[in-house]
Amino acid sequence: MAKWHFKKHDPYDDIKASTASESFMDGTVRGGMATALIREGIQNALDARRDDLPQQEPVRVRLALTRAHNNGSAITLNSDWFSELIPHLHKPDVGAPERPTRDEHCNILIFEDFGTTGLTGDYKSPYEPDSDNNFVNFMYHEGITDKSNNKRGSRGVGKIVFTMASRARTFFAYTIRQNEPDAPILIGKNLLKFREINGIFYRGSAYCLEDWPDANKPRLPITNPEIYHQFRNHFPLSRKDELGLSIVIPFLDSTVTYEELRYATISEYHYAILSGALEVTIIRDGKEEIFNTSYVPRIGKNDIDAKIDLARWAVTQTAPSPIITEPPEKGEKQYLKPEHVSNESRNLILETLDQRQRIAVRLQVYVHPKNSGPILTCFDVFLEYSDTSQTKPVFIRALLPVSNVKNAKSAVAHE
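Predicted structure:
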């Protein structure tokens, strides 16, 4: 039988009265909770794209704002899935200031991806540095990820947004995995502060599992079909037998609204959607809006709408740009200098922009891997005229907008 498992605090161990979630909220959430959810959730989905997915097929993400099915009794549903957890939530200063009540209806966000691998890896395996165990790193470790340098995003802290978006500081993950497609897995995670319940002190993390016999032994997620069928009856996933991950965020933070999710999807991932790599569906009150190559609407903000229009043009520029700059010298900072652009190219760029037309430029640079010699590569720049000097450039790396881009400080660009 599935239940929440809590681990007692070793009285000789350090006490951690704060959580990684507090650090995340202090320094990582930019643009609000909905934007953080969209950035992290879709980034994870794009990273988990299956190698055997046809190139023309997008990764599909489905977001549904709804309410858990409780057959008329919120108390019964909350007892089924949160009974052991509620006493912990209602202790003071545990990091859940807007904790739900026992009789509260459970509003949820369902965040599902398709065309992906699911949370692959051996869930019984202990942590190993640099391991490619997606399940263990995602579910059990804070600040740890299996993302290598050629993948997107930060080093694993952002996934905490899934617990922070819940007023119960909880999420569930239901996954059908490429390495074991006939064995779905269900697991829940809760993240609170160090706390005392009836004279017993507990660690911060708790898990909804089939069993966790000992803190030094593997956590056993739910593999009993009866239990995850009951879960699916209460939390209406769309996933049937497709590979991928479904995340359920119960008692959803009130700031995560349809409007905010829609805005974040368009502003953060318009390029990935227009390029055909991503399709996003957002559902509310039974009505769905699908964002794909033929539908990325303007949102009424001049700067973002201009970026969408430029991106719509950029994805059509499949041929190499006629303007290619010369690379900086090997072993030097890779700065673009006047001598790297021919007079002919410079004049063409200026004339095109003066005519309020768009133009593409390919910049050649060297990267300097740590264990090999310099490698010549390039990136493309898409330009159009702006009526204001306040317009900031947008940097996109592997389909994800890169925030807080700073000038290079090292003498050489290392990978």
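Summary: Residues 333 and 412 are 5 Å apart (CA to CA).
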